[in-house]
Write a structure and sequence with these properties.
It contains 14 helices and twelve strands. It is of the alpha/beta class. The protein has three domains: about 220 residues, Vaccinia Virus protein VP39 (Rossmann fold); about 60 residues; about 90 residues, Outer Surface Protein A, domain 3, CATH 3.90.930. The strands form three sheets. Strands 3-2-1-4-5-7-6 form a seven-stranded mixed sheet, with helices on both faces. A three-stranded antiparallel sheet has the order 11-8-12. Strands 9-10 form a two-stranded antiparallel ribbon. Helix 13 packs across helix 14. The longest helix has 16 residues.
Amino acid sequence: MDKVTSKVRAFYETYPYPPGGTVDCDGYHARLLLSYIERSAGAGEKLHVLEAGCGRALNLRAAARLQPDIDFTGIDINRVAIREAQQAASSEGLTHLRFAEGNLLEASSIPPMDGGYDLILSYGVIHHLSDPLKGLIHLQENLATQGVIALMVDGSFGRQPLDRYRDVLTMLEGMEETASSSLVRARALAHVAEHTLFKGNCWQGTADVDEVEFVDRCLHVHENSYDMDSLKQLLEAAGLRFIRWLEPADWSIDHLLEEPSLRQLLSQQDAFQRFRLIERLSYRPKLTFVAAKQAVDSRHELSMADIAQTTFCHSPQVKMVSQESGGSSYQLRLQAPFEPEALCEQQVLALSELSSSQLSGNQIANRLAESGCSHDAVFSVLYELEARELIYRPNTVFSEVTQ
């Protein structure tokens, strides 16, 4: 283990991450993530998921509880966190979830899987490695041919206020002749930054987060960050290709530009060029995306002609939101709630909410015929809801034990 890796392990064993609180496993739904690529039928009956850098595995354990027919593995260099995760999983009876101490820079420490892992998750890990490319290559080598890898790395442009804060913190440490508490000094400086560097952007509130989150954000011992160009180079060198953002709305020009002439100008650029512009126009401190091996294609767009025979399922990322009027709306991730108005929209969403059901367009239309919804109306609703990502097209089957 190199010196940087040893320092990173010591850091996380002192401050096990994540600190706790809210569990968020929106980026852990295996079948949803796999639906973003073209995948042959029967590419693997049993799905195998690896989280590389699971920490205390709060999110991974939650994902395992929601997906009991999927095999999960979590690895981390943090021995304290791995012991805690193993004990918690055992007490919860999660027999389909296992853990191991693993260093991404040592290929032999990654538990092997015949045929590779269908899904590899590595959120906020690669950028802490002394050699990110080497670690990412090891993950790519453990990825199934028709698998996906979901990654989060720090974004250079979005982190600029925090990087400037850390520069000042380093300057203050250089001025100190006697040893003092770096944590106390960092908190004091963060309170100053709340009115300057952090004011009005995504770092507002940093001064008041809990200790584990604060040191991870402000006092980490080693980290890298990426812009679009360096991220593209990293993926290509590792034998991977970009598939999509986990939250595409964050990278849409529609959310940033109201001026028609600017929208038209940017719409004429390729996607990569638009991303380069967006990262400079906004704060994107985290680059969270899905990638696959270079020979794998993104999922083809749904056509009206395919709907009848296409299988649909309710997106596990969608949450029901109660309205004051007594009705309900559906919220996807951090997007604005969608309130179905037409009867067919309400009926389709209510039917697809049964996430254990995988129904074709024809089956859905037949079930709703008695409610007065024509096949054409149902197909149009399915097309719209799939475009909004409220429903998706799974390319792997659910077993009987799925919720």
